[in-house]
Amino acid sequence: MSYKKLVEETLTKPRADRLWTANHYRLLPLSPQHFDMGGILPALLYMFRWGTRRGKGGFVATYGEQLAETAASATGKKAKITVTVEGIVDKLLQHSAAAEAEAGEGEFIGFSDPISKEILGDLYLAFCLENRRHKVGRQEPVQKVYATHFFASWIDLPEKSIDLRRVPEFIVSLLADGAEQDAQFPLPARIEENAMLRIFGRHSEIKVDKQGNFSADTFIESSADDIGIDELLLIRMAQRCQKAPLPLQGKERAIAVDRPLASGSAARLQQDLRIFIAAYGAVIPRQNFQRMVEAGIGLGLVNLLFSTFHLLACWKEGGALLPAAEQQGLPLFIDCSGGQDQELRNHSESITDDSQARYQRLPLLLMLLRVLEEYAMAERRLRQETRASQSDHAALLRLLGDLYHQRHLHAERVMDRIDEECLQLADELTKREELPHLCERLRSAENPALRLAEGLCELMGDVMQQQKYQSLLESAFMSSESHGLARKRSVQRTTGGQKKRIEVKSIVLSTELLEFLVHRHLYQPQSNRQAPLFLRSFIRTLQVDYGLYIDEAPPGYTISQQLLLRNKSWFERQLRDLGLLVGVNDAETMKRLRPRYVL
Predict the structure, then answer these.
(1) Which of 25, 113, 320, 592 has the most CB atoms at less than 10 Å from its CB?
(2) The overall pTM is greater than 0.85
(3) Which DSSP string do the residues of 153-189 spell out, in sequence order?
(4) 36 backbone dihedrals φ, ψ, rounded to 5°
(5) How far apart are CA 85 and CA 138, in angstroms?
(6) Residue 497 domain boundaries
(7) Whether 500 and 589 share a structural domain
């Protein structure tokens, strides 16, 4: 018997189904699994245009059919359809040749010889597509499309939108939220109505404005005299799909509007993206702009995850939700040398390791909330109060905190019921002669809700709990990307008398992330212009708003003043190299930031 079956028989199947999960969308509207940040923007464009989650499109059917037929004939089985850059180029050139023969004009002229075909394939790999596992070569399966133009929304990569773990839905709901009369991010929207669509939808318009016409958007080639090669290549590829993918079918079609528990971090990410996209979308070159937005989203998600943990850790101690003004994440120390200074790198890696180790308790805290809420709903005299508080995070956590700390009138009854089921679960495990340490824990005198939460997490295993949340954090760090927040390396360490290699991360400010932060804070939305920003104020903003420390040691850590000054010097050097820092002398009050992209 599996552990899940054991829990179902002990707690009942409906209750086990509600508890046996790593998701808690009402408090953290993301799926705790790995996702590819590079796939976010095309999905955003689709959702802003149509107001729904993306379903299956025609990309694989258009460009993978020939490969599938060949594979099927060789094996005698129905083969999994894959798409390669070579297959895409072949299909595009075949269509171009047919159009040229029929009308005297094709989309690709002069690419018929083998060398030219290889060059065209390399152009697609350079500007529009990425192979699976970042492999090079034109015969590798394609897994990602870059948002070089709005028509990237016509390409259904990744094939399943759920592989993006609800991140695009979360970003779209953040940007579209609000009651401003001049809202920049409505959905669904025409291309000219939405700031994001306008940036990426150059020389595009709706040919037939009809509800549900997914082939209505068209590229106006006659006016596109300034279109880039990266845009044109993607448009040509998308046009062969004939229309945008249809919406996802079923109850998952709608874009979720759950608001995260960490409202302060979410509001900061919302404001950062709104300001940056609306102010700089038409000024910054699109390739740079895309990477800067991705870097900003990554930083915002790291803050969201760390802040969620910190809020729940404080709730466990006090039983209430901290107000938005007091919410903060876990501290991170930036290695401004980018790994060149070993002492700075070691401090950054050590503090990052500590923050990640603390974050590993997030799945347990979310499970604890699920357990308390589940048994509160099962108590007749608590059901109405629990249901009424579910739409208000502060009210819900206050109620569950009163139950956990046994301050509520009906807390003893709820805890007695949970304790009974802890003992039943321990008895069943004892019969199977398995996990004696867990049986002892379930029978201990600790809070029953915590015991049951710990037991469920252990029975589910690290793969379904901690590893999933670590994968989500790793994706937000983007440590495998040059414009991510973290940089990882493999080191050898001795643990328990054995040597083994592990990965450690240091925090760096990539060029794209630093430019995102500088330009976002140089822009003043009240006056609709860029205003002076002093270096000292900017460093303070990074520390207070984002938990990124440069010239101060994070609370609870000791770093010498000499090393902190050296780190600040490295930071100033990076800013000067990018042309973002000016100062007539060494006086701190004279050092200020200036924009690279002037409005």
Answers:
(1) 592
(2) yes
(3) GGS--SSSGGGGTTHHHHHHHHHH-S--TT-S--SS-
(4) -105, 115
(5) 5
(6) 478-505
(7) no
